[in-house]
Amino acid sequence: MAEKHVVRNGEADLAVYEQGNPGGPTILLLHGWPDSHHLWDNVVPELTERFRVLSVDNRGHGESSNPPGTAAISTTTLASDYVAVIEALGGDEPVHVLAHDWGSVATWEIVCRPDAQRLIASFTSVSGPSIAHVSKWARSRLARPTPRNIALPLAQLGSFAYSTFLALPVLPQAAIKLGMSEQRWRAMLSATEGAAPEQIHLAPTFKQDMANGLRIYRSTWAANPLRDRDQFTTVPTQIIVGTRDPAVRQSSYADEDRWADQVWLRVVKGGHWLPFSHPQLLASAAVELIDAVSGASHTRTLRRGRMGLPRKPFEDQLVVITGGGSGIGRATALAFAREGAEVVVSDINGIAAEATVALIAQAGGTGYAYELDVSDESAVRKHADGVIGEHGVPDILINNAGIGQAGKFLDTSSADFDRVLAVNLHGVVNGCRAFAGPMAERGLGGHIVNLSSMAAYTPQQAFSAYSTSKAAVFMFSDCLRTELASSGIGVSTICPGIVHTDIVRNTRISGVSAEEEQRRQQLYDRLYRLRGYGPEKVAKQILRAVRKNKDVVPVTPEARLQYVFGRFAPGVVRFAAARGSLVR
């Protein structure tokens, strides 16, 4: 049960609710329009074990008093209220602030004061920019009037357009009175934010709060928000913005490192009301910043968001690769490591995985080796739990492990057919099942790469088991892509053609003697080697697919040509396959 305090600031009585660990650091939670301290009801339980949590009802909202007059609710008065709360209840040390919407906008006014560090130790800003900084960003773009520099400020101004309606007299109040209710607001937010209705917490005074809070729009526009002001902060500041935020665009934060000594930016696949849709993410992000400013090492996700520093394309990202002990897997692991990523390498041959990690270390990178049979679902789950516990949730998952199988279908035993499906298909499914959930729950997006093959869309004699497994991976990836898109996780299907790797000389060929199998393996290995297309070229395409979020990537020239033929002349492909075999 929260303990209620009342803090007096001028003519306003502010309701403040205290929960959590009385001996822990203080974190102050601030809201905007038309919310109350209940905005944070999903976030507070994530913080109370470690922190003393204070949440505030803004003046005119919840159980705080409602001073009369338009000017009574403005960013200036809110900032004054927050300072009063900090001085009355914050304790002996500066507090940490997690603020949303207008609560964040007003907090920018505090952190840009010369004495800000006396009051605030860290600031996590959610969907609420500094008005002064947005104005400066827009001015700097319009001073160099390229099409893009004109379009970006105009787009942000368009996103702010709703606020001009809310600043009007009479009309917005009438619209609220006639057309708004808790039920309608909750249903609208549930649809737009992707949050379940029970996750959307509103105060009993919601409808009155909505009307009272409109004054902040009038007072803001009356103060000419577009005027040029210099504001700089030395308070460590973390900015969190949703990709679907209808009011605040990510681009408007592009220059924040010019006005903040230490600033981080996190972009979340979400809307404006992230406290409802992503409470765990906001809590963990705030804690990561708090720990960092308190002397702990910076987490990978925090380091990745630091603005104003040069960085490699995949620096401070965690990549998990299966089948990384040789071939495409090893080449991909080395390529990601060169681009700055930390790489978790697994392989059924643990010694081979360790050899890959040794090569990464020799090049100055960071890698971790694991032995893993991807066909064993319980082993993959255990592996995922261990990786996440030790290294964190991966940003990129590469399901590469696979085996070859050749021979006519009637010569292929059920055991051999099932073995190929177990590794090539279920290995991919097991990896996605174990890692995709935590990646989606984290809310920071990511990417999954599944290795299919040209064989997925190329019917061939003597490749029924292998082609079936790769075709299943192809379609599985298409389906998974549609499901994970809302979480900001891309899925790329990589389809190599003739590539020289160890899989060729290890391919099992059904229906022939051991001696004949070995002869054919050596023959095809030599032919693939003469083809001259190595795994490094595939790795390059995988990195490109992740950077550009490509859906399907046929890699080699023959794979691309066959992909086109398979789409536009499938009958020709089938005719050719029925009259010739690659395996003799």
Tags for this model:
584 residues, alpha/beta, Rossmann fold, 2 domains, 8-stranded mixed sheet, 23 helices, 46% helix, elongated
Quick summary:
It contains 23 helices and 17 strands. It has 584 residues and is α/β, with parallel strands linked by helices.
CATH superfamily of the largest domain: Alpha/Beta hydrolase fold, catalytic domain
The CATH class name of the largest domain reads Alpha Beta
Number of domains: 2
- What's the arrangement of strands in the largest beta sheet? 1-2-4-3-5-6-7-8
The helical percent reads: 40-55%
**Percent range for β-strand residues:** 15-25%
Examine the coordinates and then state which fold CATH places here, giving the name of the CATH topology of the largest domain.
Answer: Rossmann fold
Sheet having the most strands: 8 strands, mixed
End-to-end gap: 76 Å
The dominant shape is elongated
Radius of gyration using CA atoms only: 29 Å
* Structural classification: alpha/beta
- Poorly predicted regions are none
Number of helices: 23
What is the residue-mean pLDDT, rounded to a whole number?
92
| Proper CATH architecture of the largest domain | 3-Layer(aba) Sandwich
Number of strand segments: 17
Secondary-structure topology with pairs:
Layout: E1 3-9, E2 12-20, E3 26-30, E4 52-56, H1 75-89, E5 95-100, H2 102-111, H3 116-119, E6 120-126, H4 131-142, H5 147-159, H6 162-166, H7 171-179, H8 182-193, H9 206-213, H10 215-222, E7 237-242, E8 263-268, H11 274-277, H12 279-293, H13 300-304, E9 318-321, H14 327-338, E10 342-347, H15 350-362, E11 366-371, H16 377-391, E12 396-399, E13 405-406, H17 414-442, E14 446-451, H18 464-484, E15 489-495, H19 502-505, E16 508-509, H20 514-531, H21 535-548, E17 552-554, H22 557-568, H23 570-578
Parallel strand pairs: 3-4, 3-5, 5-6, 6-7, 7-8, 9-10, 9-12, 10-11, 12-14, 13-16, 14-15, 15-17
Antiparallel strand pairs: 1-2, 2-4
Helix pairs in contact: 1-2, 4-5, 14-15, 14-21, 16-17, 17-18, 22-23
